[in-house]
Model the fold of this input.
Amino acid sequence: MLSLSLLDWAAFLVFVGCWSGYALLVDRIPRIHHRSVIAAMDEHRRRWMRTMTTRDNRIMDTNIIGNLMNSTSFLANTAIFILGGLVAMLGSPELGARVFGALPFAAVPDAAAWEVKVALLILIFVRAFFELTWALRQFNYCSIVIGGIGAGPEGAGALLHAEMAAKVANRGARHFNTGLRAYYFGLAALAWLLHPLALMAATFWVVQELHRREFRSVVREALQER
Done:
């Protein structure tokens, strides 16, 4: 860590501050969270589960759960492949020096700085893997809860189980979103291999894109229409 320059430290602190600050504001402050596309989808999942209790044939519902699990599994498997590549990069600092030394305006890292920067990427995608696999398990649990709901409406009992399934599905979606967010910031951290200023610029761009898609997108407006 001593091999990092002051500019590297500043870029790293900006990166950590933006990621943790954005997650804190969006996920932990209800007044802000309720205006996001994530909160809108939570309500649509509740409506889906309530409507599901009125159907005898639930093939469509199980297909939807299967699609959610497939997309989550794809990203979790991809994280494993990325981690394999990053571990290989960790032991090849001379490759990084050769590649980035040929690029204009790139700050060529020494061996210690290279290991620190690649280690950060490894930690990010390990976090993504754990979040995505936990989301996958929760979608699996949701499918089991759906299978336990009897055919036809059963009054308060059916609504209780529908609310239970919605809570499990919403928690799975939240962890899926956290894992996907790790992918976004992982791409930003990749810019640190090029230059600390590139890390700052990529971090600000990722935060701006996340905010636009979760709070100012056409999809969010459509989902919140009454």
Remarks:
- The radius of gyration is 21 Å.
- Residues 111-147 form the longest helix (37 residues).
